[in-house]
Amino acid sequence: MDSCIEVGKRIQPTGLSYPNKALLMRLLSSRPVLQGVAMNSAFRLAGLGCLTAIVASGQTVHSVGNIFDPQATPAQSVFSLSLLVLTICAAIFLVVAGLLTFTIVRFRRKAHDSREPAQVYGSSRIEIAWTVIPILIVLVLTLATARAVLAIQNKRASADALHVTVIGHQWWWEIRYGDLGVVTANELHVPVSTTAKPALTFLRLESADVAHSFWVPQLSGKTDLIPNQINSMWIDPQQEGTFLGNCAEYCGMQHANMLLRVVVQSPGDFEKWVVAQKKEASADQPLDAARSTFLSLSCVSCHAVSGTSASGTFGPDLTHLMSRATLGSGVISNTRENLRAWVKDPQAIKPGNLMPNMQLNSRELDQVVTYLWSLK
Description:
The protein is of the alpha+beta class. It has 3 domains: 2-57; 64-106 and 124-266, Cupredoxins -  blue copper proteins (Immunoglobulin-like, Sandwich), CATH 2.60.40.420; 285-373, Sandwich (Immunoglobulin-like). The protein has helices at residues 2-11, 20-29, 31-37, 41-57, 73-106, 124-153, 267-278, 288-296, 336-344, 346-349, 362-373, and strands at 162-169, 172-177, 182-185, 187-191, 201-207, 212-215, 223-225, 231-235, 241-247, 259-265, 326-327, 332-333. Helix 5 packs antiparallel against helix 6. It is elongated and about 100 Å long.
C-alpha cells in the first residue's frame, strides 16, 4: 500500500489529462520505483498492478464505458447474449471441473496398489453423449447469436429518426447531421429515447483513410468503418448523460487516443443544441485583430469556421470548438490552458497526429487562442 501511495504522489503533480505513455515511462524509469519492485517477481507484479490501478482510477477524459450497464437496445441485446454465453460456459466448467475433482478423489491410487484400473473401450453411451451435447450447445449459441444480430441489423428507420454520418479520420471523428445542417467533431449529440417518445438515431459510418471501429460500450456493439464502404448502425439511448466510446480497430500510432463522446439530451435540450450549432462564428469587433491573425495563418487550409473565409475540410470544423468538452478527440479537457498548449505544440500532447507545430510567436499564439476561445 505504501508503494502505491508513493507512486500516486509521483503521478499527482503530472496529471492524467495527457496521454499516459510518457507518464508511465517516467514512473518506470524512476530509480526508487525500480529498486522497490526489483526485489522479486511477485513484488514486480504487485507494483505493476498498483501502477495500472492508479492510472485507471485517475482517468477522467480516458475513462472506459461500463459494458455491464447497457443503456440502449443494441447494447442490451449484446449484454443479454453475453449472459447466456457466460452461463453456458460456466455450467460446462462446473460439470467438467466437478467430474475431474470427483475422479481424482474417488479413484486416487492407494499406496502399494500397482493394479491397473479397469479400461473402458467403445462405450456407445459415452461417445453419443460427448457428440450430441456439444452439438446442441453450439446450436443453441448459434441460434441465439443469429437472433440478436438479425434483430439489430434489420431495424427499420422511422420517419422521424435522426440520421447522422460519422467519418473516421486518423485520429478523430467527423460528425455530420445532414438533415440539420450541422457539422461537428468528436462529440455525437442525440436525443434520449423514452417509452412515450422513442427516438432512434441511425449512423452512417465511413472512413476517410484506414479501417476504424465505432464502439460506445453502453449503447451498442462494435461496427467497423471501412474505406470505400458504407456501414450502418443505430442507437436509442434511454438515459440522459455522456457515454464514452473509442475506436476499437487499430488504426495507427494514436489509435488509443481516438476517443468519442455521445451526449444524450432531452428533446428540448437537443433542439437548443442544434440551434446553437447552426449559428455562425461570432463577428464581434473586439475580436477583429485575433480573427485576422487566425485567418492569416495556414490553419484555414485544414479547418473551417462558419461565417469566415476559413473553409478547410482536412481537420475538424472549429465553428463551435469551445462548446465541446475535450480537445484532440478526447485526449485533454477543453480548457483555455490546454487549448494554448495544444495550439503551441500538438505533437507534445498527441504525438504523430497530423496537426503540425506552427511555430507561432507569443503574439500570434495569444491572438489565435483568444479567437478560438470565442468560438462557443
